[in-house]
Design a protein that fits this description.
Helices cover 22% and strands 45% of the residues. The protein contains 3 helices and 6 strands. Helix 1 packs antiparallel against helix 2. The longest helix is centred in the N-terminal third of the chain and has 12 residues.
Length: 138
């Protein structure tokens, strides 16, 4: 699949859709990689119960490895519910509100917000960083 990332909307929609699916379904990791600038960083603000909060900074390959472990046993969908965008020059900040679901037609088990920073290289938008919260331990 050749993706068109010429708009912020197409990048954000793909970011959510490509990681969503039933347990055991292999995601399109090459499409995931194509969303992110090669040196991109994904930052998870961990808040596990009964532990101190901390950050986990991931490369795209670290991110994929983390998700493969989770998606092997868990059905998981994310659905965006609102978005704020601030563009200045080649940089965009996106604050995206979303729901996490176990079934695409079921109720959300969590509502969250994700901060995503993008860069435009005259041809397309790249995700260069993203940061979100989780109550997972990793």
């Amino acid at each position: 699949m050749v993706a068109n990332f010429s708009t912020i909307d197409s990048v954000i929609q793909t970011m959510y859709s490509v990681i969503s699916g039933p347990a055991g379904q292999v995601r399109n990791w090459s499409l995931v990689r194509s969303l992110y600038y090669p040196e991109a960083r994904l930052i998870v603000a961990l808040s596990p119960r009964n532990e101190l909060p901390r950050l986990r900074v991931l490369s795209i390959e670290d991110f994929i490895a983390r998700l493969e472990t989770i998606f092997a046993v868990e059905s998981f969908w994310e659905r965006e519910t609102a978005r704020q965008i601030d563009v200045f020059g080649r940089v965009a900040n996106v604050l995206s509100s979303y729901e996490r679901l176990r079934d695409p037609n079921g109720p959300a088990f969590a509502t969250e917000r994700k901060s995503v920073q993008l860069f435009f290289d005259d041809a397309r938008w790249w995700i260069v960083s993203a940061m979100w919260n989780t109550d997972r331990t990793q």
